Amino acid sequence: MDTITHALAGALIGKAFFAEDPPAAGISWRQPPRSGDRAAIVCSALGAIFPDIDVVAVLFTNDNLAFIARHRGVTHSLLMLPVWAAGLTLLAGFLARRARWPAPAFAALFSVFGAALASHIFLDLLTPWGTMAWSPYDHSRLAWDSLFIIDLTVTLIVLLPQLSAWVHGRAERSIWLAPAVWILLSAAAFALAPWVRSLDVPLSTEAAAGACVVFAVFLLVPLRHRGRSRFGRVIWCRLGVALLAGYLSFAAGMHYVALGRVRQFAREGNFDYQRLAALPLPPSPARWAGLIATGEGVYRVQFNLLGGENLRIDFFRNAAANRYLSGARDLPGVQTFLWFARFPVFGYLEREGRPVVQISDVRFVGPRRPGISATLPTPVANFSYEVVFTPDGRVVSSGPLQVN
Asked: If phi over 0 gives left and psi between -120 and 50 gives alpha, with beta otherwise, what is residue 317?
């Protein structure tokens, strides 16, 4: 899940369970805090993005596989969660004392960080990337394949309740602020839809209109109560948590149905498959890519559970075995890449008289990256690995393929 959504989810949790409703007159963030609520909310938001600090660490290494090897590793570990929560609690308490902010007691602040870190790990587990949740004891990657890595519905679910609580927190401003924010969000939805479609993500104008209706429910409908919502911030944010739980449950159910569809396709094709998966596609839980790995290659089946899209089937065939493919498999870098790649396809070609082995992870091959042929998918930067040999079998170069 993207870092912005993690931060919004953390703030939502902090406001829902670790802070009280602000006074009717409101409190400016420019004023010194009067209780530990502000510290709890800030810590919850920052704690929810802390696990992605491993991306920063990757920038300071020369290992060209560091991103796929280390991202979502020890900082995303359930086993290490208490350690990170305790360390962050001590650091936050120190900084709060220096800033003269009132902060919750150690146990309460530990709970804030624990919940925030757990929310990050849980949301990442739902995506196809893979999360080393039991690191450092076990470095296998868990992936529940229910959500795409960027899910705008999740982002809106964790954003809108907080936005509505802020807009309707003070009656005198909500009368004009709610319509203004609604217009801004609606304009953004219609402006972004064509750009998203240019990425071959079918976000229709009707979907943008539907988003405007949802914005109106959160922003305009509460104006019926004479400018002030009958809900306080806590209720709004707990409603957001409930909506998020409902959406995640719905996505998990759709994944179960999609996985059944992929298994049915494999049975009908009489495939002797080694593994299969149903991976989510944007922008909704109705769109899926089924991947079926066989000894000959990987089938990719794209479909929409609600209809409206043609079934698309691609087959990426492994290159015939030769000594260069065998030699590539023995390289440490290739072994690391294969540990990450759930659906690898081996390709072989010759470039300027030199044998070249390319390995691509079909998880990251989609409509915008169609197969060049039935034997080799289009290489995707960072998700394809290339080994160049001399004709006598010596390695000239190897590493993640950089695509211009």
From this structure: beta
